[in-house]
Amino acid sequence: MPESIPASLVIETLKDTFREARGARPADPLGWILSVPDTHQKSVLAALDKERALRVLTCATEDEANAIAAGLYIGGEPYVLMIQHAGLYASVNTLRGVAMDGRVPVLYLIGLLGREKEKDPRESRHSMVRFCEPLLDTFAVPHARLEGPNDVHRIPEYYRLAQQRRGPAALLVGLETG
Amino acid sequence: MAIKPEEALRAIAAVRGDAICVPTMTTAPAWRTIAPDDLSVTCVGFMGGASSLGLGLALARPDRRVLVFDGDGSLLMQLGSVATIAGAAPRNLIHFVFKNAVYHTSGAQEIPGGRQVDFVTVARGAGYRDALAIETLDELRGRLPALLSAEGPVLVELHTTLAEQTPMTAPGAPFRQQVEALREKLAGV
To answer: What was the ipTM of the complex prediction?
Structure first.
């Protein structure tokens, strides 16, 4: 059964991930969170309000977040996108154009709002939950689930994967963060 | 008299110094000719993304000016980016909108609202530090020095004619090649 992940654990893991990405280069901010606010990750967003090392940029659309990511990548800055499954569907063309064809590394943290705790997401009665992994499969985007605190190691792992393959990678947040 | 986009780009190229430039759609072919070996990346392959691409560059490189050469139809595709840019308030971003009132690349169909769409009002309402419209080449030349040292974000609505070429008649390098080329150049300077 999936468990909720504490917001503080997500944030500390993101900070470690960005520190690793920067190496010895000091920076303020440490990294960027490009967010189109996701209900499932709202406790992380609330905690980020008090976090000085990471800068949150709230975007009007996921299309924008992808294009901003490309600019940050060209300029050498680390970032992740925090969005909702509906935002993934809304921004498929930009994911294709920026992260796939443009070969811009992008790690997506995608909240599965509506995911039933007792069901596999692929069997959800909600189409937005059910089609998320198949959509990522269609575009050959590597993905994994964040189903509890023991899965946060996937954040740096998939961040590195996106960098190595110079393309998209996605982590699906199964339950509301705590 | 509306400005020829090629003339506007030549005027900007003459005074831009080491600014990073982000053309898109009908400004892209001419910019490649005017500034062929340059700190530029064309928004191609993801419609309407020039302003956001420019924002990312401006945030990553606050030590440099970033000039976006947007189109009116392109900006309408991601008009919310105007609010996102205003919220981020990058001091080094100048957002030119080449306003020809049509989707030139797809056959010059009129954009929604045509010429009456007022991007200056949109930018001011969203919270850009400044926004203005320029209708002649002389006025553009006269204002450029001050514009390029102004505190951004600033939107400049340029009233233009159609470009001589479009990305359909003069395609450039793939976006991925441009991304890596500019990333390497910026890492080395």
So the answer is: 0.97
